């Protein structure tokens, strides 16, 4: 994965083009972050369709490094709520690790993301947020 590849991936994510996002993934990817596991195109679509019905989420890449087996990204994730996302709604979706957010609130978080690659495609994802 090159920086240009990742820029196309981030642009698809920021545009909410979930099919284009998933096209960057290998068969049977292992995505696990904040208690959520995603292994199929439909799970990715369901998760982000729900989340993005409450917030605009964008990633701004600040640093990128890659090898044949790993792409590492440091960036800022911006979450802007346009509708209240309550504790009850999060809990009903099994998203206890996520925090409620009220319409109009904005959160920016530094995030470190590791993409494990297989044949140039994303096979697994791990990430950490720095407060």
Automatic annotation (TrEMBL):
Any idea where the SnoaL-like domain is? 7-123
Q: State the InterPro entries in the record.
A: NTF2-like_dom_sf, SnoaL-like
Tell me where on the tree of life, at the top rank, the source sits: Bacteria
The identity of this protein, by name, is Nuclear transport factor 2 family protein
Organism of origin is Aurantiacibacter gilvus
């Amino acid at each position: 994965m090159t920086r240009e590849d990742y820029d196309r991936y981030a642009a698809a994510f920021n545009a909410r083009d979930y099919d284009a996002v998933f096209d960057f993934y290998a068969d049977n990817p292992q995505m696990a972050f904040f208690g959520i596991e995603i292994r199929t195109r439909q799970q990715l679509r369901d998760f982000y369709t729900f989340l993005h019905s409450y917030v605009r989420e964008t990633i701004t890449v600040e640093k990128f490094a890659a090898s044949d087996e790993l792409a590492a990204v440091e960036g800022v994730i911006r979450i802007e709520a346009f509708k209240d996302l309550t504790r009850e709604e999060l809990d009903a979706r099994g998203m206890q690790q996520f925090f409620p957010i009220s319409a109009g609130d904005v959160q920016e978080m530094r995030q470190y993301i590791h993409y494990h690659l297989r044949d140039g495609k994303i096979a697994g994802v791990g990430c950490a947020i720095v407060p």
